[in-house]
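Dear colleagues,

For the upcoming journal club I promised to circulate an example of a predicted protein-ligand complex. I picked one with S-adenosylmethionine because it came up in last month's discussion. The inputs are reproduced below in full, followed by the predicted structure.
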Amino acid sequence: MAEIDAYNEALRSGHYQKNDGLLGKYDNVRRFWEDEELGLYLRPYLEQLVARKEERGERLRVLDLGCGSGDGFEFVTSISNSKSLISERVIKPGMLEFYKGVDINEGLLRQAQDIYGNEQNAVFVLSDFNDYGFSKEQPYDLYLANYGTLSHNTDEQTVELLSNIARHSKDGALVIVDWLGRFSYEWQTLWTRDFEHNQWIDYAISYIYPGGGTKQHQLTYFQLRLMGRSEVLQVYRQARRRAGRSIALRKLADRSSFVGRHMDTAQYHPLCQPLRRLVNSLFEPNLCTNLDEVLILYIPRDGFTEVNTYHQRFADCWNYLITYTKALLEGSKVPEALAEMPLSLRRSLSAMKDIVKAAAKMKIGNARASLVEPQLGYCLRELEMKLQQGWGCGHGLVAIFEVVK
Ligand SMILES: C[S@@+](CC[C@H](N)C(=O)[O-])C[C@H]1O[C@@H](n2cnc3c(N)ncnc32)[C@H](O)[C@@H]1O
């Protein structure tokens, strides 16, 4: 299968590893933007689930579908509790009974085993999740299929998968999945109104290579499903019907607007700016970023008024926050206020004002790079979380479902 070859190629390149920081699969955006944002979307539901399990003296079982290198293990066990700054995890040590990762790629499973194989309660298994024997196992409490995993499926396969999960799980079980967003700026050239005849993107894992990879390497392409809101709702309604109404959609949210993997490659849209690389730099300690380069120049596409309005609004707020922060750092005049500034932007401005003031008094090596810029990264992420509409305007379109019985 093309996708198995493509992931094996990525593994052989040496760039499909953890902790790369500025480039590669596990870069700063993945760690500090995407993983954390997913965790923040999931947290309110997960906290309720964990509280119910604790009341019953039970522990949590997690099934990671398309686990790849097993990073779902770290993702679920790292989500912070909402109540305090004491850095407690929602899933405290000892609360996780069992984590099982399944994937069709042996190379990725070996990598998962190398990284997480020592975790007592984690196992990795070679299996096709569309053929998974749910009925042969005890039900799980939390199902993951993150980072575009469901885009490998046809809609019919996903309907069957979701309804199988619903049928074989208990009341309150959670499912968090995502698809590639249909209206991400990364592939604006592929935007369409004809969803029926334009479902797939020819995808390459080119983003892990310095300079985009397509010129230097003969990469394997495979097909991934692009999804917008109405398409997810259609899949959901079918799954719900098939599962006797035992699954409910709790959240639909965009993740990684303007910072998706293919912003830097500009492979699907030549006007993309390398914003992922720049936001990676914001999060990197001891590295100052040229803030002028982080400003977004959004070019709308005719015929997509609603989607353009969302992207333009987000870009305006993003740019205002960057310009304001730059003015604070330079001690110059702050820019004119935007008309009807959203609350999330006003809060971010206030946070940046406080942090710049505090940073000036701190005796640390490079307070701008290690304190102010990471905070700016978090504020940009917060803008996305508050402004997004769940239309498929980010690299990922995230859905959270709950089993209701
Ligand atoms: C984009 S990666 C996501 C990996 C991982 N979930 C993460 O958090 O990074 C998609 C993964 O799904 C796996 N996959 C695709 N179709 C599958 C199937 N039918 N059964 C099991 N795994 C599958 C691929 O091998 C790949 O590892």
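Two points we might discuss: DSSP finds ten helices and nine strands in the chain. The mean pLDDT is 94.

See you all on Thursday,
B. R.
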